[in-house]
Amino acid sequence: MTTAPLTTPRSRRGFQNSRRHLVFLIPAAAFMAAFAVYPLLQLAWMSVHDVTQATLNVPGWEFVGLENFIRGFTAGESAAAVNRTLVVVAVVTTAGMLLGFVAAIAMRTSGWWSAALLALMVFVWALPPVVNGSVWKFLLAERGLFNTVLGALGLDTLPFLYDPQWALISVASVAAFAVIPFNALVFRAALMAIPPEVFEAAAVDGASKFQEIRFIMVPAVRGTTLVLFVLTVVYGFRSFDYIYVMTFGGPGTATATLPFLGYLQAFNRYDYGLGSATSFLAVVGVLALAGAYAWTIRREERT
Predict the structure, then answer these.
(1) What keywords are assigned to this protein (predicted)?
(2) What are phi and psi of 50, to 5 degrees?
(3) Which DSSP category does 158 fall into?
(4) Secondary structure string (H, E, C) spanning 181-206
(5) Are 73 and 79 in contact (CB under 8 A)?
(6) pLDDT at 5 over 70
């Protein structure tokens, strides 16, 4: 008789609080629906219709089903773009994770050079991609700094941006260079959370620097590594700005990853249906990676 009046107001208060919290979500939900969900639905709609420059403003596009997707793969463009995207993701993820962790170890210590490296990382991280890509475009040009140094050493110059294989590796390397500061700063924050007493105990036991890294630092950043790994893969998968600035997908389509190929098909060849189909494949990939990221975060919160 006495428990019902005590629990009912509390549960009602909790329900009212949850409804009040939902009210604060309405502006963000409306913004996301207008600027994220609706464009994605429009992209999916265009991918299954015949939309070109001639029919773009004509009401009632012709429904073609999966023809745009099939056309992309039968022409060989989509499959090649997927392979190039995987190469970029592999280079960006491997270099970004390893070099980011090494830089974080260097920045964990105190000293002027550690502070200088931290300032350099923040500077590179803050550079706009257009500026960063333009600088690397000049450095890797036929008569840029790198080829000038190679020539001064008596070596043959390298076609960093003019050979299909070299161009893809160059663009992927620059994208990896750009993500290293972010990974290093996140790794550094995780390393700084390790109590100093742990390193003091390791020093008393005679542990070497390599053993400190292997048995203290690596296990301590395991959760951070999982989250950063997913974020770095997403970053490499959706790489666009450095390709646009440095090679514009060339030579030919040698550096056109899946997102950039969709851009070329839609806004360079004006085949909006085919471009939408290619871009939709990229969206599916990003959504899968976003799901993996959410699953990783939830798993880390439970552990």
Answers:
(1) Cell membrane, Membrane, Sugar transport, Transmembrane, Transmembrane helix, Transport
(2) -85, 100
(3) -
(4) HHHHHHHHHHHHCCCHHHHHHHHHCC
(5) yes
(6) no
User: Residue 37 gets which letter from DSSP?
Assistant: I
Local structure of 71: helix, strand or coil = helix
DSSP output for 234-291 = HHHHT--HHHHHHTTT-STTTT--HHHHHHHHHHTS--HHHHHHHHHHHHHHHHHHHH
**Which residue type, as a one-letter code, is found at position 86?**
L
- pTM comes to 0.84
The structure tokens 């040009």 sit at 141
Type of residue numbered 267: F
In order, the DSSP letters of 159-178 are -TTTSHHHHHHHHHHHHHHH
Domain borders along the chain are 62-301
DSSP 77: H
Give Cβ neighbours of residue 84 (< 8 Å, ≥ 6 apart): 168, 254, 255, 256, 257, 258
Task: Assess if CATH 2.60.40.1120 describes domain 62-301.
Answer: no
Alpha-carbon distance of 287 to 289, in angstroms, equals 5
The amino acid present at 113, given as its one-letter code, is W
The encoded tokens of residue 58 equal 């004509």
- Residues 14-65 have pLDDT tens digits of 666 666 777 888 888 888 788 888 889 999 999 999 998 888 888 888 999 9
Arithmetic mean of pLDDT over the chain:
87
What is the chain's alpha carbon radius of gyration, rounded to the nearest angstrom?
Answer: 25
Query: Is the distance from CB of 71 to CB of 274 less than 8 angstroms?
Result: yes
Q: What's the one-letter identity of residue 273?
A: G
CB-based contacts of 194: which residues, under 8 Å, 6+ apart? 216, 217, 220
